[in-house]
Amino acid sequence: MSDSNPAESAYRFPEGIPIDPVPQGTVLLVAGPSLSPAEDVARTLVADGSVREEGVLFVSTGETAKKLLAACRRTVPSMDTDRVGVVDCTGQDIGQSDSEIQVKYVSTQSDLTGIGMKYSALYESLYADAEAGRVRTGLISLSSLLMYNDLRQVFRFTQTIASRIDSAEGVGVFSMDPTTHDEQTVNMFHQVVDGLVEVREADGDADGELRVRGLRDQPDDWQSFDLP
To answer: Which one of 3, 58, 165, 195 is most buried, by most CB atoms within 10 A?
Structure first.
């Protein structure tokens, strides 16, 4: 996990999401219940990189690459699919994904070694073509991985992914539904990341509310947000 870098090298997010730029190497955990827009936030924070000439790499554990791409386009319509790669771990629709994006398939969410290998191969490809080697990683979601794997295996896997993001000066966004896990499990993954983004539904017209924990110079009180 990297220390702060100059402001010009920080990763920036869409204006409607109140998260200030973060240094290279930062990994965020976006946490919210299934009925909240938490996964929409996580996908948008990553997909937005494609319009900034950055690489975008998703590890999708709960939805096919095709469905993931459709979800990203709802909030980032101008997404540059030439800069997007997906590791599809669902075992569904193999070879049937949108041809615009690079996709590597893993037949099951329990094959963490296979996921890691496909992730590394895609990262290298996207890194080579991205502006200044800048790549955003989205792991959507940890909760799905925990349904198929032992807790300690998933913990070690996320540590490895976070270390790669840090060494390559990228940025990472992991998502989790904390209501489906005990407090000890949730706290374990807090150790892997630099900051926690908590998401909940909003009472008013906003798409939701969020607050940031664990990062300096970030608003830590609840703020409304609107997805692009």
So the answer is: 58
C-alpha of 185 from chain center: 19
pTM of the model: 0.94
What distance, in Å, lies between the first and last C-alpha atoms of the chain? 29
What single-letter amino acid sits at 157? Answer: F
Query: pLDDT tens digits, residue range 44-103?
Result: 999 999 999 999 999 999 999 999 999 999 999 999 999 999 999 998 866 555 567 899
Domains and CATH numbers, the chain: 24-225 (3.40.50.300)
Pairing assessment for the beta strands 55-60 and 27-31 based on DSSP bridges: unpaired
Q: Are 211 and 219 in contact, with CB atoms under 8 Å apart?
A: yes
**Closest Cα to residue 193, out of 210, 173, 211, 209?**
173
In single-letter form, the type of residue at position 26 comes to T
- According to DSSP, the β-strands at 195-200 and 27-31 are parallel
Residue 3, judged by CB atoms within 10 A of its CB (0-12, 13-18, 19+), counts as: exposed
Q: Which of 48, 206, 225 is nearest to 134 (CA)?
A: 48
